[in-house]
Design brief:
With 212 residues, the chain is of the alpha+beta class. 18% of the residues lie in helices and 19% in strands. The protein has a domain at 2-18 and 40-168: Beta Complex (Metal Binding Protein, Guanine Nucleotide Exchange Factor, Chain A). The structure holds zinc ion (ZN).
Length: 212
């Protein structure tokens, strides 16, 4: 029973994490300079409690879950980056956010596979895959296999574990003209259209995912 639920998600996760860089996350990362390798942030319980609000502490450091439909980012459709509330590591791009109808902010991929860690979680009523921040081990939420294409994954996150950084106009226009800085190799992805006439939608497809 447990393996039937958990293994398909692990297979999907493996597919995402083995996708060559630039294919899965190419358009989802704001810039290559954001994709620095994570360095561990280690703090004591007391230090985390001092830095975080009570709700943030109980979710990220005690693996609690915020009530459904209570999170401030549930219906946030602004363009930007969702970073870890504990260590500010960029985790999810708004372009990977979709309306799951579950009551929690949902994404179909992290900004980069190395930003998150996953592990089986047998503490609930059914086996789940826990998602944590790879830099500070903050509990973020869980990942399920009922998400939209192209990954088929639903990263079900707690708003309180995230901090939204809006995309600024200056940064967006700079992206189009910016020279690749410190890029170790040429970008394999073709150059984007210079004039995106169609506004991009933050929800790739409406999903009828059941409540977890
Ligand atoms: Zn973190």
């Amino acid at each position: 029973m447990r393996s039937r639920v958990v293994f398909p998600i692990l297979i999907l996760l493996a597919a995402v994490t083995t996708t060559p860089a630039g294919a899965a996350d190419g358009d989802l990362a704001t810039s290559k300079s954001d994709l620095t390798s994570p360095k561990k942030v280690i703090k004591t319980e007391r230090e985390w409690a001092k830095q975080l609000t009570q709700a943030q502490f109980y979710v990220t450091r005690r693996k609690s879950t915020e009530p459904a439909f209570s999170g401030k980012y549930l219906r946030n459709h602004a363009l930007g980056m969702y970073v870890c509330v504990c260590c500010d590591q960029p985790l999810f791009n708004s372009r990977a956010k979709f309306e799951s109808g579950t009551g929690w902010p949902s994404f179909w991929t992290p900004v980069s596979p190395d930003r998150i860690q996953t592990a089986p979680d047998f503490h609930g009523t059914e086996p789940r895959i826990e998602v944590t921040c790879s830099r500070c081990d903050a509990h973020l939420g869980h990942v399920f296999d009922d998400g939209p294409p192209p990954t088929g994954l639903r990263f079900c996150m707690n708003s309180v574990a995230l901090k939204f950084v809006p995309e600024t106009k200056g940064k967006a226009s700079a992206k189009a003209t910016a020279k690749p800085s410190r890029s170790p190799k040429p970008d394999p992805a073709p150059a984007p259209e210079p004039d995106p006439s169609t506004p991009s939608s933050s929800s790739p497809s409406p999903s009828s995912s059941p409540t977890p």
